[in-house]
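--- STAGE predict ---
source: upstream dedup step, 1 unique chain passed
mode: sequence only
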Amino acid sequence: MPDSDFLQMRGINKSFDGTQALREVDFSALAGEVHAISGENGAGKSTLVKILSGALQRDAGEVLLGGVPVELGTPVRARRLGVHAVYQEFSLVPHLTVAENILMGEMPGGGVLGLVDWARANRRAEEILQEIGFVGIDVRKRVRQLSVSHQQMVEIAKAVAVRPRILILDEPSAVLSQEELDRLFALVRQLRQESTLILYISHRLDEVFEVADRITVLKDGQVIGTVRPQEADQKQLIKMMVGRTLGEIYPSRQPPGREVMLEVNGLAKAGAFSDISFSLRRGEILGMSGLVGSGRTQVARCIFGAEPFDAGEIRLEGRPVHPRSPRDAVREGIALLTEDRKRDGLVLSCTIRDNASMASFESLSRWGIIHRREQEARVREKVQELDIRPPLIDRLARQLSGGNQQKVVLAKWLMTQAKILILDEPTRGVDVATKVEIYQIIGDLAAKGLGILLISSELPEVLGMSDRALVMRQGRLVGEYTRAQASEEKLLASAAGVSQ
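--- STAGE serialize ---
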């Protein structure tokens, strides 16, 4: 690895509406280095890399590449300088094919008429995917037909296709399976060998320690320090991020009650899952794990009325219910926090107030008119209860950090007085300190008598939070474990179909 800084960012300042997001940030990195940037939500990580990629303009400071000051200006200008970014929010064009997205602006022509040579285009896109180890994606498919994980892989392929000098990966693994994550890490190591500088942002500290050469920690818009993984451990990094040591990550809890609140019997949906049966008791946290594509999310969506099911029965507090829409489910007392909060959970252009009360408009309305005073009082109560920051109910959802956005989605469902709360990847894309807060909130809700179905790809989360754990594989329930029986090895073996 070279010993001279290829990238230097000096004295970077950035504020939004009077809030200082970055304060005198000095950051440097080497060519051929994987440099992780860590910190809590709102620490300034994304703001810093968006300035580097030209998506945001700095208020003060300078950026140097190879010792030469540069003006990044716009994403187009940054890309011309070799800086390419893959953000959490996809920039793909859904109605175009995989090949068109990967080769956008570089489609091969077919002669004097300037027509696209589709055979060459598809072949070239396949070559790019194969070169970087992302196999099994049909380049002729439209992007909207792909799974979220395959869309993420296409987004990465699009950025890597031009062999950037700097590649920014902002939470690239949030939607990837373990196999896909292994492919990503292999690609990162390959690019490092080619002297590409990779800036890697992830809330998953085990990933950071596995892939990074150095780690820079931001807190409250300032650099706290830079360490090498060999010289620090996760506890030290967490202390740098939050300014204190964290106690027990998972809250202590009392055993749940005996009353069965939710029963699912023989639920089936063609092509997704079959013969799903389980029960959920009052005050219980029931974990559900399984590999990506195992059918967990589809089960949740059918219980919530977002998708129809073909067979089976759902019973709530002993009586049969058949939600035909999310509105029906909400009226019955069932809520679903979806795995993609930005797509399905929030209207980013609306305020905290309107997002938090969106599912409760009927109870807040008189003769079709929203009672504003009652709305604001109830939203403020939830903002205080969940410690949403900043506690400004007129702040737009898109201006919040990922963890606070997730709390707003929780507030929305808690305002409906839900009895059953289905949480699909509730801590995806949030930092470790916010995870602890969300775990405490979930524990408190269970203590108040809610039945909680917790769906998660993170096995420590399932084990740490659940009273019982279910495992799904290829659309079927293949395991059920009590808290005393469950272990990572057992859950993984069940999910992978390995006999124990």
